[in-house]
Each structure stands twice: as C-alpha cells, then as structure tokens.
Specification:
10 helices, 2 domains, Arc Repressor Mutant, subunit A, about 15% strand, Rossmann fold, about 230 residues, HTH luxR-type domain-containing protein, alpha/beta
C-alpha cells in the first residue's frame, strides 16, 4: 500500500518538521493526519499502515518525528530507529498501563500522547516540546503512573539517591509533566536555571530523559502517590 503523503506550507510561522505516522487503525491514522496537516510546525505528513511500509518508502526522506500507536505493538520501533537515526519517536497510548508495558520492554521513546486527549493543541504542544529537546508526557499520565506504581515502590532505595530540596521540587514538577519554561515560572527562576536543575536531577537519577526520570522516581519512592 502506498503511503498517504500530504505536503503543505503553512503561513503562520516557519515550518520545519516532517512527520511520519505508522498506525493500523485507518480512522485514527486519517484523523491524526488531518490534525497534523493543520499545524504550522509541519511541512509534510506521511501516513503508513505498518512499519515495513515506512522502512520501504521513507529511506529517502528521514522523518523528524515518528508517531506510532502502542496498540500496534513495539517490535518494529527498534528497526525503524536504525533506518531513521535521529528521528524522534512519539507513542500514542490509551492509559498508564500501556506506557508501563512500553517502558518495561525497554523501548526508547521520546514522548507520549494520550489518545483521549488528542487535539490540535496537544499535538502542537508535544511537537514544540520535541523541538526544544523536551519529552512530552501528559500530566494525567504521570499521575496515573504514580497511582499504579504505589504497590511496587521500594522506599529503602531512597537512601541511594540524595536530592537537594530544590532538586526535589524540580522532580515533583517533572512528574506533573511541566516543561523547563513552566518549571522556571513555578520556581521563579530563569529558564537557564530550570534547565540546569533538570539536568542535575537526571544526572543523579542516572536517566537520559524525563520519561525515565519519572519512572525511576516512582520506583525509588522519591515521590508520593496522591
């Protein structure tokens, strides 16, 4: 099946992102294609029904962002990452259980989108976060992960990770899903100061991104369930 390709030149701002969608569900894939096409941040949207289609047809133009559906399975993502190195992977999920399964499998993704929260605004916010090196993770998803992780936390492991009060504040805000700019506003510090705090927290937790930091914080008992 030939990929659906939509190219456009939005007038609202300088566009820069090439998006590839890989989803079996026709309705979901078509709906997302339309929504993404309406954003000023995208220059092209390519839609595929399967990962093999992407691997066959997208070799000449690496997508900046690859959007996949957790419900379709994650086996092909590692292969796609090899074929399109540097592409950011955003996974569509329906609840925290799906996110846990993805993380437990060791799949590396750059952000999550909740299916029930999909809108032009949430898509644009996620893409903007990707562009600035942040990891989009809806606050409600972080809260669901907290609630589900309660029975598996190991408080004794807290002794192995020591955070300053400011770093702990920063970690709590990361769990809420706040961006660096939002953390800066909440803590009344500069954007650079927030970025430095976040980097320090990731370093102490031994994590390379915000998503893994949230999971580590939950499993280590560094955050309390609401």
């Amino acid at each position: 099946m030939t990929a659906t390709i939509v190219e456009h030149r939005p007038h609202r701002e300088s566009a820069s992102l090439r998006i590839a969608l890989v989803m079996i569900n026709d309705i979901l894939r078509d709906g997302l294609s339309v929504a993404l096409r309406g954003l000023a941040l995208t220059t092209s949207v390519r839609a595929y029904r399967s990962m093999p289609e992407l691997l066959t047809e997208a070799v000449d133009e690496r997508p900046d962002v690859l959007v996949v559906n957790a419900a379709d399975g994650v086996a092909g993502i590692a292969t796609a990452a090899l074929v399109a190195p540097g592409s950011k992977i955003v996974m569509l999920i329906h609840d925290a259980r799906a996110a846990e399964a993805v993380l437990a499998d060791g799949v590396v993704v750059d952000g999550f989108l909740l299916q029930q929260d999909l809108s032009g605004r949430t898509l644009e916010n996620a893409l903007r976060a990707i562009m600035t090196g942040e990891v989009p993770m809806p606050a409600v998803l972080a809260q669901q992960l907290l609630a589900r992780a309660g029975i598996r936390r190991t408080p004794s492991s807290m002794a192995r990770i020591t955070l300053t009060p400011r770093e702990h504040e920063t970690l709590l805000l990361l769990v809420e899903g706040l961006s660096n700019k939002q953390i800066a506003r909440r803590l009344k510090i500069s954007d650079h100061g927030a970025k430095r705090l976040v980097a320090g927290v990731l370093l102490k937790l031994g994590c390379t991104n915000r998503t893994s930091a949230v999971v580590t914080a939950i499993r280590s008992g560094l955050v309390e369930c609401a």
